[in-house]
Design a protein that fits this description.
Helices cover about 35% and strands about 20% of the residues. The protein is an alpha+beta fold and about 350 residues long. The chain has 2 domains: about 110 residues, no CATH class; about 130 residues, Jelly Rolls (Sandwich). Strands 3, 5, 6, 8, 9 and 11 form a 6-stranded antiparallel beta sheet that branches. It has a 5-stranded antiparallel beta sheet with strand order 4-1-13-7-10, with no helix packed on it. The chain has a two-stranded antiparallel sheet with strand order 2-12. Strand 5 and strand 6 form a beta hairpin. Helix 2 runs antiparallel to helix 4. The longest helix has about 45 residues. It is found in: Secreted. InterPro entries: C1q_dom, Cerebellin_Synaptic_Org, Collagen, Tumour_necrosis_fac-like_dom. Keywords: Secreted, Signal.
Length: about 350
């Protein structure tokens, strides 16, 4: 009884194992069919895109996918598919060996591509340069046998030379140039000869005029103006000073210098004017003081012919006086020509 049960149990186990074996074979066939379809897809993609990077990476990707799928299989199917896996691995290794050679060939073709593009096609016409319509046309090229010799005309100018022409008119002078720097001072030349004597001058013409007179008497103011009259002559060669009127008359027009000196009176005012004709020019003034002092006044005047210059004492509105005595001369009046007029 136990043998029957045991024999029946063993047959059932074999049936189960056989069914599992057939299921694994079916799964391996399905796996192989899928692998073949993937290989076809890869080969078609590589042919349509030979330069893409997917061709060089497809063996490694397929190898990794195969390993992952094998690891997912049960142990009986794993051992049964080892042979097919090893054959695919060898095929992948062969492809990987061919891959570097193909990449090298592609790189060389890429390097040769610019040179191929630069080579001119024999069917194309030669390049023609642009010319302007006004440029001179180049002579057409001819062979060595047909080239003409160059002819140059030489004219002997000595034969055609004519007689010398007349001298032309002198041209207009150009503009003066810039002033140059001053040169060095030259040497002193020899003394020249004595010149001729000039024409005699006018004997009546006098080029000088001067005088100097004094007074020995005191003078007090009155109800009117008084001309100061002098009684002592120091210099009056040409008698241009009138002693009776106390006035200088101009006979030589020019610039004159005049000077008046007086002595004041104690406790009295001194008030005089130097007159040019009837016009007051300068004043000689001293205030009343206990002590008498000397006062002086000077001026230069431009005189014309017959002008008068004299000294005037102020009238009694201001009681004033000047002092002098018979012993000494305290009052003087002087004048002389500095420069005659040019006209």
């Amino acid at each position: 009884m136990m043998g029957k049960w045991g024999g029946g149990g063993g047959g059932t186990l074999n049936v189960i194992l056989g069914e599992r074996e057939r299921e694994r074979e079916r799964e391996s066939l399905v796996f192989k069919n899928r692998e073949r379809e993937r290989e076809r897809d890869r080969s078609s993609s590589s042919q349509s895109h030979p330069n893409s990077l997917s061709f060089s990476l497809s063996p490694s990707i397929s190898l990794s996918l195969s390993l992952s799928l094998l690891l997912l299989l049960p142990p009986p199917l794993l051992w049964s598919n080892c042979t097919s896996f090893l054959s695919r691995a060898k095929e992948m290794q062969r492809r990987l060996r061919v891959l570097p050679t193909m990449l090298l060939v592609c790189a060389r073709l890429l390097l040769l591509l610019p040179l191929v593009c630069c080579v001119a096609s024999p069917s194309r016409s030669p390049t023609r340069h642009c010319r302007r319509c006004c440029d001179q046309l180049e002579p057409s090229a001819v062979t060595g046998s047909q080239q003409m010799p160059e002819i140059r005309t030489v004219i002997n100018m000595t034969i055609l030379k004519g007689d010398k022409g007349e001298k032309g008119d002198r041209g207009t002078p150009g503009k003066p140039g810039l002033e140059g720097p001053h040169g060095y001072r030259g040497l002193i030349g020899p003394k020249g000869s004595k010149g001729q004597a000039g024409a005699p001058g006018d004997a009546c013409k006098i080029s000088s005029s001067f005088f100097s007179v004094g007074r020995r008497k005191s003078l007090h103011s009155l109800d009117y103006y008084q001309a100061l009259v002098f009684d002592t002559v120091f210099v009056n060669i040409h008698e241009h000073f009138n002693m009776f009127k106390g006035k200088f008359y101009c006979y030589v027009p020019g610039i004159y210098f005049f000077n008046v000196n007086i002595h004041t009176w104690n406790f009295k005012e001194t008030y005089l004017h130097l007159m040019h004709n009837d016009k007051e020019q300068v004043i000689l003034y001293a205030q009343p003081s206990e002590r008498s002092i000397m006062q002086s006044q000077s001026v230069m005047l431009d005189l014309a012919l017959n002008d008068e210059v004299w000294v005037r004492l102020y009238k009694r509105e201001r009681e004033n006086a000047i002092y002098s005595d018979d012993v000494d001369v305290y009052i003087t009046f002087n004048g002389y020509l500095v420069a005659p007029s040019l006209h």
